[in-house]
Amino acid sequence: MKTIKFILLLSLFGTLRIEAEFLPLLPTQTIVKNDWKSLRDLSVVKQNFESSCGGASLATLLTFYYGQKVSETDILKALENNGKKAVSFSEMQKILPQFGFQGQGYAAGYEQLKQLKIPVVVYIKLRGEDHFSVLRGINDDTVWLADSSYGNVTLSKEQFLEVWQTRQNENSDLKGKFLAVLPTKTDIKAADNFFTKQPKKQTDLAIRAIGILRN
């Protein structure tokens, strides 16, 4: 997924103002009051390369949920990828043991996602291009993503399904895909303020702005 131009990111300002009050701070994080860019990118590893969203998403999950301080560069090095070619869930799964984790990919529907108790990496299509993002909040009608291109964004259920339901199996309700990541070591502790079952809804302005996510 190509990095979104800065001018498009500005359109998300309305969403970020709403989200500011519930973005959690981890122990080592501080933000400047009214700094919307810091709020937008809080607890998100931003991608530095055209196709490194998968690496950045894993780095976000391992760093801010599991507290392991893993960089995008660390993930790309393990993948033997320079960030210019896309990766798959299978490739991510293979390198996770190097960091003390294991991964498993699943096909799922929205109801299955709602049962999750941990953040996961989701595969989506943005403007027809492959993209990975971290799902860090979900309820009946709202999804919160920690995205390596956009930062923290919230989508309505309908908006999320438009980009997440990529499996073309008409005989199944499991039209989306996600990668679950779990530690293999007992001393790795998860943050209790990264994932939520109560993501806040966005304003009408934010809903219109997030239309740039659609295919």
UniProtKB/TrEMBL annotation:
GO molecular function, one term: ATP binding
Origin: domain of life: Bacteria
Entry-linked InterPro entries: Peptidase_C39 (IPR005074)
One Pfam family, short name: Peptidase_C39
GO cellular component: membrane
Peptidase C39 domain location: 47-171
An example Gene Ontology biological process: proteolysis
UniProt-recorded name of the protein: Peptidase C39
Organism the protein comes from: Formosimonas limnophila
Lineage: Bacteria, Pseudomonadati, Pseudomonadota, Betaproteobacteria, Burkholderiales
